[in-house]
Amino acid sequence: DEDSYSVDYDYGREYDDEDDKYEDVYDDYDDDYGVELESRNTKENVVKTQVRWLRNKFHNGVFVGRVPKADAANPSANPGGEASIMISRLRAREDPKQGIDMSGFAGFILRVVSDGNNYEAFVRTDLYETDGIEYVYEFSTESKKPTADNKSRSRFKTIRLAFQNFRAVQRRKSKQTEASDDTTVPPFVGADVRYLGFRFRSSSNVLDASRSKMQEKLDRLSTKRVNRDKELQNFYMALAYIKVYREQPEPEFIYLSDARIPPVIRDGMVHHDRKMLLTDDMQDNNSLDQKSSDGDSSSTNMATLLDEKDLQRKSMLERSPEETYFKYRGEEILIKSGLSYTILRVAGFNELSGSEASTIDLVESNLGTKIVPVSRAEVAQVCVSALLDPCALNKCVYMTKKSVKGKNVLDEEDMSAKFEGIPTDVIL
């Protein structure tokens, strides 16, 4: 029943505070995996790889299990274990013997919540059946510190897997491969996709000394892990959705945002309950507000002439923390959507003409750089330039102005060169 299936699986469901409300943890599945894939003899006992694929209460597909650990001192000699899941055979409608043709797209988009480990996405085409070759893309996930209210260490992340970055890997030998002298393997372009899966390898997740000590501390927090075999390594990755995206050389969406948003959002800065994003200038703003409230009350009845610097500062102070928060939420939604974009963070707008001796400047950070309001005409020029510029693809920039000697150069500025100097947010 397609109707009930679509209601049951709400793929568009996302929370304002996803990481805070997501309380699905490894220990919930520790006692019952159901599937044992392999076993490896050790001096003391038999270590078994276990894996499970299920749906959790958040309607996500969960890839969870544990595998034998790799030897941290010599992972090549003892690579440990691996576990994988794979979807059912994909078939083209026109010819069921063939896989699905995705060559009109540029890659996959994954929305995952995971434990900070490294995973592999793999695709199998007809080459796997004839030559034992599959295409593999290794990607990393993120984690967070558990709290008293939420013991989960999993964190959401949107990942793009470009087809061109999948590498060919020989998974098994075949007679055709041994008999053939031609070792050239065509690159993966999205054609004839017959299987899609995910894999966890302990050899790709060898803990260094500092991480091992931290893992031991975290293990002691869980009563279920007291007697757990030390030869096993746990993993957890939940998939919210898998989509494909088209190759887009230019931005599809230009988003005007707030220059008070810092270039890096750290833990504890976003407060969804209060609709607030804590920024570095909030304390300064509060002190300015306090000074104004402590001043002479008679000054409120006096007219004040503000110069350009006062206008710039006033423009920043008039923005509420709630406005900055929702600007940031808009950025998050846009980045998660899979659309190609340019995010333009501005400090404010004015009606000044472009005749002043200054030029547009695009920078990657608001730290150590004076971000001043700009005219609406200048913002419009940057937006129009970004729509047709591949150098503006998937970039977040701060727009400001800097003084130059001589006449105004607004009509002569090379916006493409300015965008080219800004690093890309998402590596395709």
UniProtKB/TrEMBL annotation:
Pfam families: CIA30, NAD_binding_10. Gene3D superfamilies: NAD(P)-binding Rossmann-like Domain. InterPro entries: NAD(P)-bd_dom (IPR016040), NADH-UbQ_OxRdtase-assoc_prot30 (IPR013857). It comes from the Eukaryota. Residues 59-146 form the NADH:ubiquinone oxidoreductase intermediate-associated protein domain. Residues 327-390 form the NAD(P)-binding domain. Residues 1-24, 284-304 are annotated as: Disordered. Residues 15-24 have a biased composition (Acidic residues). Residues 284-303 have a biased composition (Polar residues). This is NAD(P)-binding domain-containing protein.
